[in-house]
């Protein structure tokens, strides 16, 4: 697998910025694995963006807007912070069980019921469906809210080509 460059945050930056002792103690290769997963989660959440034409990496960032005065591409600060928060969330919720569990997902609870006999039931938001929101740390989602793509593909069906209902 090819590791894209530039990454949204480096292993050294994670070590310097995290407040989680265990995460800071990981070797750089393991932190890089968490960063790659976090970047994929962020890309899924943010959605398609206008890419810089000279950039061929398979990542959302840097976008066409992420050029400095000298023409160099830079990852937006809030994207780097969101990546750090996502790496911390992955480390806290999954790293210890990574050898025998899937990546973590958060399912928001819409309502819950506690019966008189102590039984418990809950209804999950969005009917428990998996979306990019389910795989993204809440703190990362807040940082990325202004980056989320506002465009969507439009599907058009030609009414003359649709078969008649029988």
Chart the SSEs and their pairings.
Blueprint: H1 11-17, H2 21-25, H3 28-46, H4 77-93, E1 109-114, E2 120-124, H5 138-144
Antiparallel strand pairs: 1-2
Summed up:
With 166 residues, the chain is mainly alpha-helical. The protein has helices at residues 11-17, 21-25, 28-46, 77-93, 138-144; strands at residues 109-114, 120-124. It has five helices and two strands, in the order ααααββα.
What does this structure look like?
The radius of gyration is 20 Å and the shape is globular. The termini are far apart. It is built from five helices and two strands, in the order ααααββα. It has helices at 11-17, 21-25, 28-46, 77-93, 138-144; strands at residues 109-114, 120-124. With 166 residues, the protein is mainly alpha-helical. Helix content is 33%, strand content 7%. It has one domain (11-144). Helix 3 crosses helix 4 (77-93) and helix 4 packs antiparallel against helix 5 (138-144). A two-stranded antiparallel ribbon has the order 1-2.
Query: Poorly predicted ranges (pLDDT <50, ≥5 residues)?
Result: none
Counting structural domains, the number is 1
Task: Classify the oligomer.
Answer: single chain
Q: What's the gyration radius in Å? A: 20 Å
Give average pLDDT, whole number. 79
Number of separate strands: 2
Strand order of the largest sheet: 1-2
Count of helices?
5
Q: In percent, how helical is the residue content?
A: 25-40%
SS class? mainly alpha
